[in-house]
Amino acid sequence: MLITQVKNELNNHYLYLNFAIWYDIASYFGQAAYFYHRATEERDHAQWIMDYLTQADYLFAIPATDAEHIDIYQGKDPFSFATEDHVMDPHTITLDREIQTTRAINAIQRKANELNDYITGHWLRQLLIEQAEEESLSH
To answer: Which of 38, 4, 10, 17 is nearest to 108 (CA)?
Structure first.
């Protein structure tokens, strides 16, 4: 479950990076900075989980991401992104992703409790606190 969460965090990283790049190109520098920061946080979460697994001597490989399948423009001209008729809203997508992430981490927490894995359960608390902050920021 933790390895799957690494993949989820990296998928979020690439999605937010795509948003940041679009805003940067479109000269919405405040929004670009916001999404660059969010992308960095997601990458850091993935690294944090990988560090935990490494410290536990767990042999794993970084999972493949779905980044090559992320098309924030949905086949449209990238500059149509700013028009009202475009179906993508980065802030709504970000909130949805953060809610999904919280649910996934909660599921890992439940599994750790079920397995009496108190070390992982304790370690996950900090990630859940961070996740609550991210969800709040996304709102």
So the answer is: 4
What gap in Å lies between CA 65 and CA 37, rounded to an integer?
A: 20
pLDDT digits (tens, 9 = 90+) for 119-133: 999 999 999 999 999
Which residue from 78, 55, 136, 72 is spatially nearest to 102, judged by alpha carbons? 136
**How deeply is 67 buried, as exposed, middle or buried, from its count of CB atoms within 10 A (0-12, 13-18, 19+)?**
middle
Which residues lie below 8 Å from residue 54, measured CB to CB, with a gap of 6+?
A: none
Q: For the whole model, what pTM was predicted?
A: 0.85
Residue with tokens 């998928």: 11
